[in-house]
Amino acid sequence: MSGVSVLLTTEGTYPYSGGGVSTWCDTLIRNTPDVRYTLLPLMMNPHVERRYTPPTNVRRVLPVPLWGIEEPSEFITDVPFARLYERAHNTPRAAIEAEFLPIFRRFLDAVMRADPDCDVVGRALVDMEEYFRRRDYNKTLKSPEVWDAFVAIMEKHGEPTLFDLTECLRWLYHFLIVLNVRVPRVSVTHSTAAAFCGIPCITSKIRDGVPFILTEHGVYLREQNLFLSRFRRLYFAKDFLLSLITAIVRTNYRFADVVAPVCHYNTRWEIAHGTPRDKIQVIYNGVDPDRFSPAPKPPGPLHVVATARIDRLKDIETFLRVAARIGRGVRFSIYGAVTDEKYYRECLALRRELGVDVTMGEALDDVVSAYRGADVVLLTSISEAFPFSVIEAMSCGRAVVASDVGGVREALDGCGVVVRPRDVDTFAAEVQRLLDDPALREKLATRARAKVIEQFRIDESVAAYLNLYRDLGGATGASPVEATA
Fold first, then answer.
1. Taking the domains of the chain in order of start, what are their residue ranges?
2. Alpha helices of 209-329 — where are they, by DSSP H?
3. In this predicted model, what pLDDT tens digit does every residue of 335-362 receive, in sequence order?
4. Which CATH number is associated with domain 302-456?
5. Which residues contact residue 480 at a Cβ distance below 8 angstroms, ignoring those fewer than 6 apart?
6. Are the beta carbons of 287 and 395 closer than 8 angstroms?
7. Which long-range CB contacts under 8 A does 445-448 form with residues at least 24 apart?
8. CATH of domain 5-284+463-473
9. What pTM does this model have?
10. Which residues on neighbouring strands pair with residue 307, listed in sequence order?
11. CA-to-CA distance for 290 and 284, rounded, in angstroms?
12. What is the pLDDT of residue 230?
């Protein structure tokens, strides 16, 4: 693997927050010490603290805060201030009109089509990226010329209010900030989502022919639809944002050399949105069965455990309602950080209303001990990819009851219980059945452990990515330019 360099792009995850994608990133990087990585994480704001310290084979981190900055060039560290100052003064209105607006119009017209034109979107992203190497991002996108062009195009697609127009252009301004980044030349690019973090991979592929791997954990488009469905207003703005997200997702699929979802469930979405079957290669997440190993449960009451962050997608409310149905004599615990404070307060209120004693709201450093302390591991999410919490619990030899979402059924088939999301009655009945039957718990746990060893080992997962890096990275004739630490 000598000489292979990889640009690994993330969005809202590694190295700034926990969760399954961050676990996957850290595991992949640490288990491929001969690969030189440049990280490009998209983050909510510049004040987020790192949750992970990347290992030494990460030669450079290029953080891109999308919000909370006055001037996008603030985070560009490899361009002298004098050059940035000159760029700002070298962005006259005539240049915006002559150079940027034709690209901008092509981009928006392609995005707003019922069937987005991914080739046009991709080429426009490259052209905008090259424009922003010469001209100022902030001055361009906040110019009257861009506003007028944006309004004219949006009014062809509906009757937006002034608030709609302002909100839509504001979103576009922030989500395209990644175009302002100067990405180093590498052997391979690797995006962790079919999302805005994939834009540098798309532009590197189109401009320089750099091979592009796309690993899809959760289905980004599905999760954004779930998120936006909670908003009952801003109909035009929601439609615009969904059109933009759909175009970016499909353009990721279009230009990736290999789409590597973490479960077969994801492939249905990828194929439905234009990905040829022959470029899809499923690579399951894996765990270390020596670390996540069985051990006797400490003495104490029956214990139902979840290892999940406090987030709406994890549907903590269903977990609390299951605890209320099962009642006294059984201990319930949720180990995971709070990522949505408003939702956490709602869950605390529901806990009081139900009168249940459920431990929640704190992450646990030793997650193995959490699984070993459980009789049943319960996952109530409404959206997942191929969750580590399930295969970690399986590897620790614990019986699992989980929502039938994403690749959960693929993991638990023959060795666990899957339940329709939000079906509190069935969740409670299945958990109670396992609590009442130690022999059944043991049988499922033994099968689960064996399945992990056979199909979901971390060494096999890492080897699959190394093979892709080797095969694709050796295919480009470009000599990678290594970023300095």
1. 5-284+463-473, 302-456
2. 220-228, 235-255, 265-272, 316-326
3. 999 989 999 999 999 999 999 999 998 8
4. 3.40.50.2000
5. 3, 4, 5, 185, 186, 187
6. yes
7. 445/294, 445/394, 445/397, 445/398, 445/399, 446/397, 447/414, 447/415, 448/393, 448/394, 448/395, 448/397, 448/398, 448/399, 448/400, 448/412, 448/415, 448/416
8. 3.40.50
9. 0.90
10. 335
11. 18
12. 72
Q: Is the peptide bond before 63 cis (omega within 30 degrees of 0)?
A: no
User: Looking up tokens 């940035």, which residue turns up?
Assistant: 84
Residue with tokens 């861009």: 146
Angle at 359 between CA 354 and CA 22, to 5 degrees: 120
Rounded Cα distance between 2 and 36, Å, is 9
Residue type at 477 in one-letter notation:
G
Tokens coding 207: 């401009």
- Spatial neighbors of 333 by CB under 8 A, at least 6 apart, are 303, 304, 305, 306, 358, 359, 360, 370
- Name the token pair of 209: 């022919």
Residue type, 238: K
Give ∠ CA 267-269-270 in degrees, rounded to 5. Answer: 60
